[in-house]
Amino acid sequence: MISALNTSLLQKNEQSEESSDELKKLLKKLSQSADDNAIDRVIRLYEKTIVALEQEIWKKSPTASDIEQYQNAFLVLEKLHELKTIDDRYNFKIVIPVADRPQHLKHCLDSLLTLCKSYGYGGSKNKQYKKISVLIADDSRQEDNIKQHRAYCEALTAQGIATDYFGLQEQLALVRQTAAENPQLKRIISDVNGIENPAEFSHKGASIMRNITYLKINQLLPQGKNNSNTLIYFIDSDQEFCINTTDAEQNFYAINYFHYLNQTFKTQDISILTGKVVGDPPVSPSVMAGNFQQDVQNFLSAAKKLQATQACQFHQHETDSSDDAAYHDMANLFGFAARAQAFDYHCTLTGEHNNRDCFHNFSDKLGRFFYGEHPTRKTFFHYDKGFSNTTAARTVYTGNYVIKPENLAHFIPFATLKLRMAGPVLGRLLNEKLQGKFVSANLPMLHNRTVDDTGQSEFRAGVESSNSRIDLGNEFIRQFYGDVMLFSIKKLTEQKTSDADSNGQAIQAIVRDTYQSIRQNYIDKHHTVLQLKAQIQAQLDEPQNWWNNIKEEKDTHRAKSNFNNFLENIQLNFDENSFAFQQISSAKHAEKYLHDIQHAIQHYQDDMASWQRTLNS
Question: Where in the chain is the domain with CATH 3.90.550?
Fold first, then answer.
């Protein structure tokens, strides 16, 4: 019977009426003759067949029909699970912090619904998915966006996925109650003294929002063993449950995330698992301006040698940047090899078009860079060793990680400093505490920094725009001092200093030494960025270039304006007189940031103890 299952269910024509009738007969025979243990044996054998199919699909470039066949195999697997008297697979509580991003959130929730329909994990009862629920933690300020977020929660519940809304008023009440019982928690969930209007408690930042949500989850879940079959899945609102490849224009729902997370946590001794992202880079534009300008320079060098009306020559195979953080100007700091060569631009236009059209289209994407999109260095999915394989982790991708309820004890550290790099900092601390129980798996989500209709992020903390000017100043500062925090923590955990240094002298020395080292790296890259900017400006203005010899052509004039706006924004954000550069490079301005970092690290153990008492109360 097992052989019959393997043969009939995975044929290309498995959706035929004849095959469907055969499946019903096999399932009926199994349900009449087998107990849960026997069904489990069939399930395990069938899972191996699915993995074999999966491996076959990823030996080549998958097609839509390949992925549909793969999804259908999992739907059959769900029918096997339905035969059991008890389904002991994990339930998933998906937590999505969001701040003024209705379009992103809508795409994220739509992708979750598509995933559930495609794979059917956990089955459904009364048109509700039994093992999947969602909590939206809203940090929005705009009332219209809040209304839309609430409406999306109601709509998703109506479509079969139970979704709760955790709004500002409830957050403020929870923080007030918690801080009143334990004032030290202000360093973790913020200080609400003087805040009366819930709207004033918005835009707290993703790290504070996650910590407050940890408290909410701790309230929602039953205590002790009763919550042992639940996993908490944190994702970001600008992500989707699908992946990209270099060989296909479309994105695929090619990963049954819940199945593989359940399997991994059931078969391995894991406390926290992190995935990654594909698509747009997970870092700030402030640390990508050097390599992107190399690619802009490379594009102009190629374009000026071509005829404007010639068929577009920029459709070479898209370059994959997944293996070495090629989008990061200082990848060497993170142990990746530096890459000097530029990446070619892959034109995204379809249909008949020429080099001039491509020039216009590329220029339209330049402004997107300042919102975190990298038009030339995206990351693409690789199957590699499959979805069940795990490796020791050192970074938490805070937009894609899964924890057991008891690991709510590991809050996002130093949240009230509002620095970037919170995930890598937490990862270093978890790596020391959990060691082999903190792992990474090949379960990436698609990351989209911008929305198509504006080419901007709906809301991005620390980024301010006015007309064509885009100011990264606050994000730049948060990125720099986030790096100082990260590499200070790295040194402290390697030297076992943070637990033993009660007077803070060793912590102070490490933080300040780290600051000097990171500062020099940023200054070096700063000079490179401005040199590249000057070279691109000269290249753009060369009189002989065809784009400077087309008269009365509005699109080309607009394209040149896009390039010039891009270069002006580079100057605005990287100039030596800019606010961000002064805050980074001046010892006087740095003093407060370094003091706050040192103070936060020194009180981390006290914060851990206070947090644990709160969770257990």
Answer: 91-283+380-453
**This prediction's pTM:** 0.90
**What is the number of helices (H) and of strands (E) in the chain?**
19, 17
Which pair of tokens denotes residue 540? 């753009």
- H or E segment and range at residue 95: strand 91-98
Q: Which of 269, 253, 261, 267 is nearest to 234 (CA)?
A: 261
Residue 120, CA distances (Å) to 21, 58, 71, 145, 543 in order: 20, 22, 9, 30, 60
Contact 540, 300 (CB under 8 A): yes
Is-contact 314 355, C-beta < 8 A?
yes
Return the pLDDT at 584: 87
Alpha-carbon distances, residue 546 vs 41, 69, 295, 306, 354 (angstroms): 69, 50, 20, 9, 13
pLDDT number for residue 36:
79
Instruction: State the number of CA atoms in the 13 A half-sphere of 364 facing the CB.
Output: 16
Give tens-digit pLDDT for 63-112.
999 999 999 999 999 999 998 989 999 999 999 999 999 999 999 999 99
Phi/psi region, residue 400 (left: phi>0; alpha: psi -120 to 50; beta: rest), is beta
Task: Please state whether beta strands 128-129 and 445-447 pair in parallel, antiparallel, or not at all (unpaired).
Answer: unpaired
Write the DSSP symbol of residue 577.
T
Cα distance between residue 580 and residue 473, in whole Å: 5
Model confidence pLDDT, tens digit, residues 476-501: 999 999 999 999 999 998 887 655 45
Task: Place 327 in a pLDDT band, splitting at 50, 70 and 90.
Answer: confident
**Cβ partners under 8 Å of residue 446, min gap 6:** 111, 239, 240, 241, 242, 243, 244, 251, 277, 278, 279
Q: Is 188 exposed, middle or buried (0-12, 13-18, 19+ CB in 10 A)?
A: buried
Say which CATH class 91-283+380-453 falls into: alpha beta
CA 184, CA 180: separation in Å to the nearest integer? 9
Tell me whether strands 277-279 and 445-447 are parallel, antiparallel or unpaired: parallel
Residues 422, 425, 427, 429, CA torsion sign = negative
Q: Does residue 441 have a pLDDT over 70?
A: yes
Give the residue among 140, 142, 123 at the shortest CA–CA distance from 83: 123
